[in-house]
Fold this sequence. Notes:
By secondary structure, the protein is an alpha/beta fold. It is built from ten helices and twelve strands.
Amino acid sequence: MHILVTGGAGFIGSHFVLRHVEAFPNDSLVVLDKLTYAADKKFLSSVLEKIIFIEGDIADTKLVKELVSKHRIDTIVDFAAETHVDRSISDPYPFLQTNVLGVASLLEVCKAFPMIRFLHVSTDEVYGDLSDTDAPKKPLDPLCPSSPYAASKASGDLLVQAAVRTYGIKAAISRCTNNFGPHQAEEKFIPTVIRTALAGLPIPIYAEGKNKRDWLYVTDHCDALEVILTTPNAFDACRVFHISSDSEQKNIDVAKAILKILGKPESLLSFVRDRPGHDWRYALDSSETRSLGWKPNISFEEGLKKTVEWYRERSVR
């Protein structure tokens, strides 16, 4: 394959690139990344000689068309996104720029090059929250986003679905639960707990910390995407694939588990005012993706230890 990976220097994208280069050395990878605060080209340092790296914006349609033409791109895997809910509440406009207009730009490219397969990486947050007794969401369930971030991702998903229907492009959408692991921006929940605990500072926990998330280790997510890419008919009729670990944890329990790994006291936990529109719980039914032969390999406990160790090593450098 000749793949364009957008957002490939970010958290999930960088892991995808690293694993794909190792697993498929004969493939050609072009990585396009704007290198905002949540991305780091150093994440790709071990493979920079094996890929083509371009600093740029997915909303630059001319640039993306040039890359597709020059490098004979046949597949786009789109990780590029603004993702932090709190930032979206404070200022939604960067989220509209990347998650809506950026997706629209990539779809224009797909229209111009109809042979391209487009895998759009989305999120469980487009469905909104669930109660403790609600069943996990299925791919055809209605979207009901709560935050500007989730609304922008839902908008991008709908643009993809509309482009498939109207223009006949080849596309698929993946929606995953909360990812964690190395390379994640420090503002996210698990890195924040690790960073503040290492510094011996109060760890901010929204409300009572009882909100639930299904935690998926980042490399398991990437492996699921590889399965989608190699599945016949995956890009017919804009199929939606769910990726989940079925490992729901309360936020407070995640924080306590990190403190235990670090040998830090629970007295560091500091409860703060809940954020507006805070979703209670997310859950996805990933049975269809699992039927393709994928399943998560890294348990929450193992993944958390790997994650804590990575951030601890960085803190002492």
